[in-house]
Design goal:
With 106 residues, the chain is mainly beta. It has a domain of 70 residues. It has 1 helix and 6 strands, in the order βββαβββ.
């Protein structure tokens, strides 16, 4: 189980452009799922992911990065469940150093 973040950049060389601690709204617009994973499709204008998303869960032995493939396949097969109304959630911008999630200015 995951569900705690939407990636802006994976292992960025710089934190420039990341507004640590900035609170904002994010829209969840759809969902893709299969036997290996479950992901929410979001509007994240800062993300450099082809398909900005929040990974909800993956099967044992499956990496969370699978969500990218899951969404791509679901789009190609027209299996994405789009919501009638986007769901707005509160988010706080930050980053992970691999051991800690940093969401407050240092």
């Amino acid at each position: 189980m995951y569900g705690h973040h939407s990636t802006i950049a994976f292992r960025p060389t710089s934190l420039d452009g990341i507004d640590i601690g900035q609170e904002q709204k994010m829209k969840i617009i759809g969902r893709a799922q299969d036997e290996k994973g479950d992901a929410l499709i979001v509007e994240n204008t800062k993300s450099n992911n082809e398909y900005p998303h929040i990974t909800l869960s993956v099967a044992e032995g499956v990496s969370p990065v699978y969500s990218n493939e899951l969404i791509k396949n679901a789009l190609e097969k027209q299996l994405v469940e789009y919501f009638d109304e986007p769901i707005e959630i509160d988010v706080t911008e930050g980053y992970s150093d691999g051991a800690n999630d940093i969401i407050e200015p240092q």
